[in-house]
Design goal:
319 residues, mainly alpha
Length: 319
Amino acid sequence: MKNRIAVFASLCGLFCLMFASPQVIGCARDALKLCAELILPSLFPFFVLSILLSKLGLPAALGRLLGPAASRLFGVSGAGASALFIGLCGGYPMGAAYIAEMSAAGAVSREEAERLLGFCNNSGPAFIVGAVGAGIFGSSAVGLALYGIHILAAVLTGLLLRKRGFSPSAPPAPCKTPPFSAALPQAVKQAVSAALSVCGFVVCFTVLAGLLDAVGWFSLLSGSLSALTGAELHFSRALLTGILELGSGVGAMRGLSLSPANLALAAGLLGWGGISVHFQTLSLFSDSDIKTALHFAGRVISGVLSALLAWLFAFFFLR
């Protein structure tokens, strides 16, 4: 049944592509421009470095250093807690890619990897401060505030998803790490593959949003949401676009004023990440037995907490 629905939806998409090719070409061009100007420059270096650090044994070293604190706070090992740092520095889907790399190397168990996905895959400072703060609201200071809110929401999500009574297993025995001369080329190859995968999903979901707009569904949904909630149409379109794809959703926010509601919208979209990010994460674990249900739950929790914290921040400090 699921395959039939997927086939039907794909055929509908193909039909729409044939009759809305100008809109599709424009959306694909905008998405590729976004990838070239923002996503690849901000993500690719972090992909290389995080994969390289994992191959050179950073998770095991951090596991010994952070173990006690990570166990008490989040119910994970120290090696697992390092994924939170990587995710908050590298951005989507760097945290998930790092968890996949640690799991493949045996640094974390399957159960721990699944819980780490709930709060360690986050947006990074380059996107939040540059694209959202400066690009949408014209203020890097607002971007820094949003980044602080994003970090706090991630930590709170980790506390909410904490497994009580967790007792970390002994740190994995140090395994032989490859020399730097071998680890760097491997990291670059894996980073190229991961970065192209991210860009592919960004283009795919941007085109999907464009198709929905071309056939009038986006306008209908946006109008209905505005009528139901009283929000302005611009706000509703940005919300619906961001639910699908984060970069396009942020781009759709251009022109919105700095208000508690709009700041909450930006924070909520950053916390949620977009359906595109969820598919990027699924692709990283497609060859493993790791389930990604907690990733979805964590992104929902983080999105709600981020929106609430941003609204409170704007209400008390931006009046």
